Amino acid sequence: MTELLWGKQPVPSRGPKPAVTLAEIAEVAIRIADAEGLDAVSMQRIAGELPVTKMALYRYVPGKTELVAVMSDLAMGAPPERAELPWREALRTWAMDLYDGFTKHPWLLQSTIGRRLLGPNELAWIERGVAALAGTKLTGGEQLDSILVITSHVRNIAQQSTTFPGHSTGLTEEDMQQALGAILNSEADRFPHLTAAMRTSAGSENQGLEFGLDRILDGLDLLIQG
Question: Which residues contact 155 (CB under 8 A, 6 or more apart)?
Answer without folding.
Answer: 102, 109
